[in-house]
Amino acid sequence: MLIEFSVGNYLSFKEKVTFSMVASQIKSGDAKVDENNIFPVDGELSLLKSAAVYGANASGKSNLVKAMNFMRFFVLSSSKETQITDKIDVRPFKLSTETIGEPSHFEIVFICNKKIYRYGFEVDHQQIISEWLFHVPKKRESYLFKRTKNDIKTTKVFSEGEGLEKRTRKNALFISVVAQFNGTISSKILSFFGENLNVISGLETEFYREIAVDYFDEYGSDIIKIIKKLDLGIDRIQISTKAVLEDELPRGIPEQLRKIILMNKLESSDIQTFHKKYDSEGAVVGNETFSLDRDESHGTQKLFAFAGPILETLKRGEILVIDELDARLHPLITKTIIELFNSNETNPHNAQLIFMTHDTNLLTNTIFRRDQIWFTEKDRQGATDLYSLVEYNIKNEDSFESDYIKGRYGAIPFIGNLRKVIVEIDG
Length: 427
Known about the structure:
The chain has helices at about 30-35, 60-75, 175-180, 185-195, 205-230, 255-265, 290-295, 300-315, 330-340, 400-405, 420-425; strands at about 1-10, 15-20, 40, 45-50, 50-55, 105-110, 115-125, 130-135, 140-150, 150-155, 195-200, 235-245, 265-280, 285-290, 320-325, 350-355, 375-380, 385-390. With about 425 residues, the chain is α+β, with helices and mostly antiparallel strands.
């Protein structure tokens, strides 16, 4: 379960900002929303089941997703997929002289195996500047290890890290190294990043096929049920695989890559959808076969691909982060997906959905509490600020959507006089 995520000096984030899934001490205008949208962790802490991030184009919404994805990938790969001479592919904020030469900051607070952990690191292109891991065994937080460049200090509770300090390269994370040696706590943390924190983009159409095929074996029947309920006209789905033949490879493919594909006997998947076929009287006379790639809309492809991750996240109580969830989807379908998470019935394991969106139809107190709505906005120096609607002193009966469009909360584009530009161009 995600509690908080912080990032600083990365992409459009100059100063450190914090995104939180902690439920505030507020009441919404609808008792059912409070009952379904939050869940208690203990007597003091309650978390949100979903959160939406709004903002103008290029305001930093997608950069928040990229920051989470960078941290996830680096934790999972830094100790095994890099050499000591490799540079770290971190992208600091470029629009200020203050950030030149400064490290990027990443930190996450989460619950794993019913324990709260706070893990983070600061990194530049050359090395890990600092790294830390804390936990809350009872009431007070205490550290498990602290690192400043190559100086690493561990506690007895984290004895699994003893002796591995010298095995840790300057460009590798200590937590990743310890996990490679089967450390108990470190392995659980890497498992959290690898299995519980799922980050996907809503616009990567080439990624749809891979996602769909990966999840279909386990969730095929349930995926088909969802597709039918969403009124897409699909009656059945079938996935078949075959070995990639040499004459099917694209022209101009590098010879080395060609050899690898053929040597490893890689397979390609063909995804077919079946639609009912009718006669002139409207009676069903059979099925017509469609190709998901060629014949179905991008919206249908996206729904088919995302159905698997959504089902798994709900089933296992995981975290799902989606950029541009609403892209190519009807507003009612987007709303339905959100309602699956904001429900004690369909989300009994307290899975969490975090998504970036432009869909203002969702800005209503019948769907979200104020602490579930977040905004990104750039200042005049191009740096992104991140803030929540709960910071505003507003009433629950106020129209969140109307006030947002009017600019009351910021995070909207300030559009100049395009008509004048067009007239000048024509003139």
